[in-house]
Amino acid sequence: MDMERFERQIILPELGKKGQQKLQSAKVLVVGAGGLGSPAILYLAAAGVGTIGIADGDCVTTTNLNRQILFGHNDVGSPKASVAARFIADRFPDIQIEAYQEYLTVENIPVILPKYDLVIDGSDNFSTRYMLNDASVLFGKPLVYGAIYRFEGQIALFNAGKESANYRDLYPQIPTPGEITNCSEAGVLGVLPGIIGTLQATEAIKWIAEIGESLINKVLFCNLKDHSFYEIDLVPNEDAQKNRPKTLEVFLKTDYSVDCLTVADIGWKEALVSSNPKSSVFIDIREPDEMPRWSNSQCLEIPYGELEEKAELFSEETSVFLFCQHGIRSRPAAVELRKILRRNSIYSVTGGVEHPDSPVKQLI
Amino acid sequence: MKDKFLKVRMFGVVAEKTGESSLDIPFVIDTKQLTALLFEKYPQLDGIKFALAVDKQIVHENIPLHEGAEVALLPPFSGG
Question: Which of A183, A225, A318, A331 is the Cys-Cys partner for A348 at CB 3.0 to 4.6 Å?
Fold first, then answer.
């Protein structure tokens, strides 16, 4: 690496050449290239972290653009992990970038996680957060946690050394669907993940370069509305840890699916713009006699009742857009499929075929 | 003489449901009584999950409170 690039941070006595070398040899995995992941990845790369892994199975949508600053209008429909990797590789060719264009699961985590020294949680759902937390403990990796809600954020460094608390010590059990009130529909001020994701990058850099005090056994709450920070203390709790799988065998069998009962509704316009013919599919879940039909090679016809048994027909697709006549059946269908396929990129197209924006028209 | 009180801080969806981010309430002896009182005062909190911190320390069990203690209701956030 060209050391001149880091001159302004190397002259910090706390960092120095030694700290820079630590950053250069560090391997950081960022889970989720979204609102939190975008700024975190940017600052880690700018700071000279030598290897950055980016895991995200999602594709860019227009509604991401108010906060996911690695992406722009031309990226809509493209996979986030590879767009993010290209963005960084173009600017900093001396950094090793690994893009994982997939969602993390109990099966792929044990393959990916051991390759890294530290993990950043930039995910957007409880399933991934608990899974990643438990895996970090299992594989002994420090986890920089960050999460957001409307105008508020939480940041912590979990599992960093002995006697270091983790997410289970804060929230011992994965919430039940009834306890989750809001997910992607909660709304968020775009700059919020910018701040929280940047704080996550800060914690990662501090930990790697051994600078200052880390957020170990602490959780920092931040509220942009009244510019307040609230720091609480956390201690490892034996009872709370009983909920965590202690061996790889148990981890592999743990069901982390909870996910929101709130549905990911998507309008026709956005679904059509977001859909990439190579990685997404529309599914007409109506019965065969419901008219009009859509003759489109990107559209499968699978009635609601057969969705589960035929899931393998579309389980490889990045985004799945379900539609019916009025958008009534596609909502519960999307919820069920999200549970079965354990991912969130399954959408119900609002208003169905009868919606004014629908491309499925009666032939006159 | 000033009445005994507790300071309650609310975050995320808890603050949103109650419309309060900070309030003083009459003293009760422990966290169990405090949460019971809050659920009675704010029935809209029914079913909402949160962690409790007493004087900025996370607690998982019922613990006694002292006069003027600060109790924070901290719901989990999932967004990213």
Answer: A331
